[in-house]
């Protein structure tokens, strides 16, 4: 049982480049979400999805797009990377209701 | 976005000491309060999910309480061990299905042998 898998683990981009951070889970969780973690700050919610075909914005959605075509996958797209998007990104999923989040191992992104 | 606060920011204790941390959160539109343990170079792992006012949960030497009316939760560690060293995060879940998470900045605990 792999849980939540994020790829890549590390990525360096130049300003203006685009890329997609991948997140997949094999637990049949309806809820999936993306967070960024910056020094001195808590995890901040970027986007979330409560099921295939449904997405919504979190606290810091600007500069990021998401889609949810299947239950398993929830990719995060940066259309035009900016240095302010340098961060560690975590994907998390959970069952519906009062269940805990299961986190992936994170992607460290540097934008130069 | 209403803030979730945690105190203290960091804590150093001796092995065997008991300790506690505080998480304060907005009580409006409350759905659940989560606690996570985050070790360096790993991902956060769930400790507790609490929903009801007065809830108390326990896992081994770690326990937590919840007061939804005044918007705070306490996490207690009894007889701290070096392996308890980690950052402890709380998160407030709000919205109709608890889908909107706001995390606190965490309390970093170091347990000295």
What does this entry look like structurally?
The complex is a heterodimer of chains A (112) and B (113). Chain A is built from no helices and eleven strands. In chain A, the strands form two sheets. In chain A, strands 2, 4, 5, 6, 9, 10 and 11 form a seven-stranded mixed sheet that branches. In chain A, strands 1-3-8-7 form a four-stranded antiparallel sheet, with no helix packed on it. Chain A is globular, with a radius of gyration of 13 Å. In chain A, a hairpin with a 7-residue loop joins strand 9 (87-94) and strand 10 (102-103). Helix content of chain A is 0%, strand content 49%. Chain A has 112 residues and is mainly β. Chain B is mainly beta. Helices cover 0% and strands 57% of the residues of chain B. Chain B contains no helices and eleven strands. In chain B, strands 2, 4, 5, 9, 10 and 11 form a six-stranded mixed sheet that branches. A five-stranded antiparallel sheet of chain B has the order 1-3-8-7-6, with no helix packed on it. In chain B, a hairpin with a 2-residue loop joins strand 6 (56-59) and strand 7 (62-67). The radius of gyration of chain B is 14 Å and the shape is globular. The mean pLDDT of chain B is 95. Chains A and B meet through strand 4, strand 5 and strand 10 of A and strand 4, strand 5 and strand 10 of B.
What is the rounded distance between the termini of chain A?
Answer: 36 Å
Which H/E pattern describes the elements of chain A? EEEEEEEEEEE
Contiguous uncertain segments of 5+ residues of chain A: none
Overall 3D shape of chain B = globular
- Give helix and strand order of chain B, one letter per element, not per position: EEEEEEEEEEE
């Amino acid at each position: 049982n792999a849980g939540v898998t994020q790829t890549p683990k590390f990525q360096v981009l130049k300003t203006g480049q685009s890329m997609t951070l991948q997140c997949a889970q094999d637990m049949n969780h309806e809820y999936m979400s993306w967070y960024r973690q910056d020094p001195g700050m808590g995890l901040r919610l970027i986007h979330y999805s409560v099921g295939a075909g449904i997405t919504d914005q979190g606290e810091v959605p600007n500069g990021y797009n998401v889609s949810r075509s299947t239950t398993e996958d929830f990719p995060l797209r940066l259309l035009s990377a900016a240095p302010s998007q340098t961060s560690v990104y975590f994907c998390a999923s959970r069952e519906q209701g009062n269940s805990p989040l299961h986190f992936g191992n994170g992607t460290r992104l540097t934008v130069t | 976005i209403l803030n979730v606060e945690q105190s203290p920011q960091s804590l150093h204790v001796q092995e065997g000491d008991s300790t506690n941390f505080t998480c304060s959160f907005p009580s409006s539109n409350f759905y659940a309060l989560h606690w996570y343990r985050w070790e360096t170079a790993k991902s956060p792992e769930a400790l507790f999910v609490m929903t009801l006012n007065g809830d108390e949960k326990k896992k081994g030497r770690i326990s937590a309480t919840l007061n939804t009316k005044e918007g705070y939760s306490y996490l207690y560690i009894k007889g701290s061990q070096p392996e308890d060293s980690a950052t402890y995060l709380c998160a407030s879940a709000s919205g109709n299905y608890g889908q909107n998470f706001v995390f606190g900045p965490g309390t970093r605990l170091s347990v000295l042998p």
